[in-house]
Amino acid sequence: MELFGVDTAANNEIEDTLEIFSKNFRKLKSKESVPPDKTEDLIILYLLNRNPALKKIKEIISDESLELTSRYPELLTGVAFSDKGEGESIITFLMKPVLHAPEDLEKQLQYILGHWGDFILPFIDRIKRGLDFFREERKPQFPPGPGPSKVITYGDDADSDNFSEDTHWMPNVIMIAKSTFVWLDQLSKQYSRNITRLDQIPDAELQILSSRGINTLWLIGLWERSEASRRIKNACGNPDAASSAYALKNYEIADELGGWEALHNLKGRCSSFGIRLASDMVPNHTGIDSDWVRQYPDRFIQLGESPFPGYTFNGMNLSDSSDTGIFLEDHYYDKTDAAVVFKHVDYTTGKVRYIYHGNDGTSMPWNDTAQLNYLDAEVREAVIRTVVHVASNFPVIRFDAAMTLAKKHIQRLWYPAPGQGGDIPSRAEHGLSSDEFNRLIPREFWKEVVERVAREAPDTLLLAEAFWMMEGYFVKNLGMHRVYNSAFMNMLKNEENGKYKQTIKNTLTHDPEILKRFVNFMNNPDEDTAVLQFGKGDKYFAVCTMLVTLPGLPMIGHGQ
Known about the structure:
Elements: H1 8-25, H2 38-49, H3 58-61, H4 64-69, H5 72-76, H6 90-94, H7 96-100, H8 105-115, H9 124-138, E1 175-179, H10 180-191, H11 203-211, E2 216-220, E3 223-225, H12 227-235, E4 248-253, H13 259-272, E5 276-281, E6 285-287, H14 291-295, E7 302-303, E8 324-327, E9 341-346, E10 351-356, E11 369-371, H15 377-391, E12 396-399, H16 407-414, H17 434-440, H18 445-456, E13 461-464, H19 471-477, E14 482-484, H20 486-493, H21 497-510, H22 512-515, E15 518-521, H23 530-534, H24 538-549, E16 553-556
Helix pairs in contact: 8-9, 15-18, 20-21
């Protein structure tokens, strides 16, 4: 193999050095000759050992044995950068990023991206992925919820008019949320008898709600919940916790609440008081031990091996099926790590999967959930059928964390384009180009939902819990009837009155119709109560007055 800028004797010595290199660092596939890429490997070895940013892995990449048996550093430093043997040596050129930022690999990659132009065209995506890995490592974490409040603005993605038409009752909805099991316990104490089923809720309570102007009752936690969710919470230090209402086993009314028969009883009695029922639907994920995880494990985002070697899965089996093993990553139990996957074992085939937990990229993964794979058209169709099932039983549906399933956020979180990753650890290496992603998900999932519900379950009000500056997009472009206005709660709680005033002005300027489709609220199921956030004085009553008088849908929290 002839190298530019060195004489024949040096070339021969390099060939001998490559043979030594091959014996010490890797086995040759053929004993007859040295593969031509070995020179590149030799140069890479040299560069790795002279990069201070890699000192932590020096033991793995050390070239000490090769230096003791050859003159390879002296030989390589004479290799020129052109076939004429002119100009700076290739080593001098390749060392420039190291000299620019000796202790910082990220800055070295940024230097390469910014200075090497056409030389790196075949490698640009790999370099951008490398930078994504650094973003994964240093991504800031926020508590659950919408995050820091920002003034709502409207860009090009909200320009398309696709409002869903309201039917006669929708503009007049006044909704109250009730955490079902908590409410039943409160009623049991109030009436001095066991009230544990939906059909046992007294008519007197429905009469009280109706007399106060409430015409929609959102019952939180109606569906069968994940038993593993309760076991995880108990094992992690909360022995009295129940399963999460957002880690679901399936979309059947919980047996504890009396099942479908009890729901239909309550629904009929509510109707006599002019009250409609509302329900949650959790489209982003299921419970970690849901029916789908057991029956259709391929519907979830997964890997064939653990994404991080430090993960271990030696704890209790959370599955109630003898055919399936479900194991939470061990460090959740001692609160020293928050793994992005859990281990799933199919005992009938021996297949092991590492399924991702539900995750919105803002806080820790939801460790009692499994993340659905919306890249799969069959998954999207299965979820839409479930939405229609819910809509056939409830005239109002609240979609939990709806913003995570907008196309741009599905890609950002789970299949990021090169240079756009970093939100969920380990996902940067599984990203897709925008063209490939759009080929696999050609339309917005929520547009398909709105269209199908309009055809198959008309007269259903669709309400999206959506943050991340997507309020206008969800109602004006995607066609949701209503969308959360988290700015109302967050800004008024923090007394950021100027920011909220600007939000209202921006909305009126862009399209006043959006203002009528906001859901205004003072607390949410995963937030503190309204009293804890707003107190019991004038501030509470002032904000509550705005809640019920501003355009939009007033949503009253449990306990208000």
